[in-house]
Q: What sequence folds into this?
């Protein structure tokens, strides 16, 4: 059992099945689908609250999505910890700035990597809240519930994702 | 079931953390917290992301449908629309292709030491969700309600009982995994 935890990679079927079981737990014990992107909205609300608390109090969105630490926020924190434990146990934890594929295509261009990552992050944050969910909320939890909105959103993630990546890597 | 758990908010924070640790662990072990794996999927040279997601949906879908039939849990679906699900999904996808992580895997990438995920992706996501919050009243009034879907779920759309659709999904998804295996991925 311990050896399994120390392996650098699992078969994608095993990793996926593990996530499926976690989805059961999250529905059963927490009455919630697995999702990540609302936690980023709450964080952005908490930061804005430090700068302009009056505006956040009046904001229509932050009255719905209250800027506070709750279940999902803790879950995203858990993802960071879980990935850290996993990579630490297998000895693959490594500080790195430019991913291999990116470096091979564009060289060790720090500015370009941060630019694509920040602009990508902004578009993704916007899109995730626009569609009310991300790859976990729609892609895994929503499809497991046979949600139509999730099927459409997840198709959008991959259609635009494939087109954008192909365009970027053809430059 | 476990209703008394659901309203115990301190317990829920601990449960959230534990479920997250498991989630991050599985994502990292599956290799999907790596930019190379995700970009490989979007360039259609590596199908690990699809293999992990389809396996998760297969196991997740069957389990939650059994628990729902037993009356243990409730589902949380909502009605989508062209303005929300499709436009939002496409915007997300452009970000997905540029960043090479998604909101969950960006957290996992931070955990395994990726600085671009922390200072690029994480910061970008916080800015992007902040922009959405700021423009929410306008986006909500003008765009989100365009082309509201007539139904909430796939079974309602194709007029088939829920369990039949689960069966069809199982066949389609196992078939897809098998086909990818045959193609050497």
A:
């Amino acid at each position: 059992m311990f050896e399994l935890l120390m392996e650098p990679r699992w078969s994608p079927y095993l990793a996926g099945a593990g996530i499926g079981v976690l989805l059961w737990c999250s529905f059963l014990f927490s009455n919630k689908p697995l999702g990540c992107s609302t936690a980023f909205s709450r964080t952005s609300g908490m930061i804005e609250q430090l700068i302009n608390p009056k505006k956040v109090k009046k904001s229509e969105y932050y009255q719905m999505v209250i800027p506070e630490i709750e279940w999902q926020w803790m879950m995203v924190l858990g993802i960071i910890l879980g990935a850290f434990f996993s990579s630490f146990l297998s000895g693959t934890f490594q500080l790195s700035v430019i991913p291999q594929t990116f470096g091979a295509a564009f060289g060790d261009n720090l500015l370009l990597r941060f630019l694509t990552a920040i602009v990508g992050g902004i578009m993704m944050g916007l899109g995730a809240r626009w569609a009310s969910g991300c790859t976990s909320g729609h892609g895994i939890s929503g499809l497991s519930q046979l949600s139509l909105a999730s099927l459409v959103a997840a198709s959008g993630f991959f259609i635009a994702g494939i087109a954008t990546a192909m365009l970027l890597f053809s430059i | 079931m476990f209703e008394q758990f659901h309203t115990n908010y301190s317990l829920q924070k601990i449960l959230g953390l534990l479920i997250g640790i498991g989630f991050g662990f599985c994502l990292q072990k599956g290799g999907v917290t790596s930019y190379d794996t995700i970009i490989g999927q979007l360039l259609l040279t590596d199908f690990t992301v699809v293999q992990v997601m389809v396996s998760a949906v297969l196991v997740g879908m069957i389990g939650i449908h059994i628990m729902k039939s037993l009356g243990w849990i409730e589902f949380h679906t909502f009605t989508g629309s062209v303005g929300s699900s499709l436009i939002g999904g496409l915007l997300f996808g452009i970000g997905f292709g540029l960043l090479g992580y998604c909101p969950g895997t960006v957290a996992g990438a931070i955990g395994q030491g990726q600085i671009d995920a922390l200072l690029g992706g994480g910061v970008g996501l916080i800015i992007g969700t902040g922009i959405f919050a700021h423009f929410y009243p306008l986006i909500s009034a003008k765009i989100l309600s365009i082309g509201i879907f007539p139904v909430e779920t796939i079974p309602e759309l194709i007029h088939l009982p829920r369990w039949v659709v689960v069966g069809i999904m199982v066949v389609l998804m196992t078939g897809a995994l098998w086909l990818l295996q045959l193609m050497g991925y």
Remarks:
- The radius of gyration of chain A is 18 Å.
